[in-house]
Design brief:
single chain; about 300 residues; alpha/beta; Rossmann fold; Histone, subunit A; 2 domains; 13 helices; 6 strands; about 50% helix; about 10% strand; globular
């Protein structure tokens, strides 16, 4: 297996052991790891986002972990730009880039490229959102179809978020969102990638999620959340979506006890893992699936770096 021209992608649901597997692989093939998880970018949220341990970071070079403030905006486009730069730098050192994470949009961006739609003025975006709220999704969707007929077969009538996005793109650019997609070209060829997805049975994953929740709380997740809330982060920023933050706020406000806190975080994490698995079934059908209990065997397929 010639890896010199390859970029290795490792995905899987949360708590499936992706980071550990990526480190083992990097050690064997002389690789460096690039983060493809939208929540592990935040420097103030190490425990709640299950960032790799300090020892792992020392042994293998890691990139794009814990480098952005929770107060910053950071889009998929920002990540793609940073990831391409890291890939090129790693290759210059004759090493293999290994991208690992659970954010499907990041992987889609690196494989397919990203749509370069012009920035839409916030005044127009707000106006369209207000209209959707005023007339309701059913009427709004009908208006969208009249405005952009391509959306009829491509956007579910109940998908509010995508309907609004398609509407504002067509309204501002006079070009369908799907025409923008078809004009998008990737930065890498399809054969550049080795795409691996860790397959974990739900019942086993449930056990791991429960265990990891306990470990996070033991390791200081509550204090980490307290520090986060002291920063007064704007509510619309993506860092607020880190699982555990809102649940710990309930605990700090004495609305739930510790047992309920553990249960709520576990449930939300399981729901997230289910969404990741749904995405994988729909968007990653051509990825190579590896059973969780076959990772060590699979690792032996890779040639050891000389």
């Amino acid at each position: 297996m010639d890896l010199k021209s390859k970029i290795i992608l490792i995905s899987g649901p949360t708590a499936s052991g992706k980071s550990k597997f990526a480190i083992q692989l990097a050690k064997k093939i002389n690789g460096e790891v690039i983060n493809a998880d939208s929540m592990q970018i935040f420097k103030e949220l190490k425990i709640l986002t299950a960032r790799p341990q300090l020892n792992d970071l020392k042994n293998i070079k890691h990139h794009l972990y814990g480098f952005k403030s929770v107060k910053d905006n950071y889009s998929t486009g920002n990540w793609l730009k940073d990831a391409k730069l890291k890939i090129n730098n790693i290759r210059k050192k004759n090493k293999i880039p290994i991208l690992v994470g659970g954010t499907g949009l990041y992987f889609k961006a690196i494989i397919d490229g990203i749509v370069k739609i012009p920035d839409i003025p916030i005044t127009m975006r707000n106006r369209i959102r207000k209209r959707q709220l005023k007339i309701g999704q059913t009427k709004f969707y009908s208006e969208l179809i009249k405005l952009d007929s391509l959306c009829k077969k491509k956007i579910n009538q109940n998908d509010t978020q995508r309907s609004i996005r398609a509407y504002e793109v067509k309204k501002f650019t006079n070009k369908s969102l799907f025409d923008w997609y078809s004009d998008t070209y990737p930065d890498f060829t399809k054969d550049s990638f080795i795409k691996l997805h860790i397959d974990y049975p739900r019942e086993k994953l449930t056990e791991r999620i429960s265990l990891r929740t306990n470990e996070m709380l033991r390791d200081g997740a509550i204090k980490e959340a307290e520090r986060f809330y002291k920063l007064r982060v704007k509510k619309d920023l993506s860092s607020n979506k880190v699982i555990g933050l809102s649940e710990i706020k309930e605990y700090l406000d004495k609305r739930i006890d510790l047992r309920e806190l553990k249960e709520k975080i576990s449930i939300k994490t399981r729901q997230y893992a289910k969404r990741q698995s749904t995405w994988a079934r729909g968007q990653m059908s051509d990825w190579q699936k590896i059973k969780f209990n076959r990772l060590e065997i699979f690792l032996k397929k890779f040639p050891k770096s000389s």
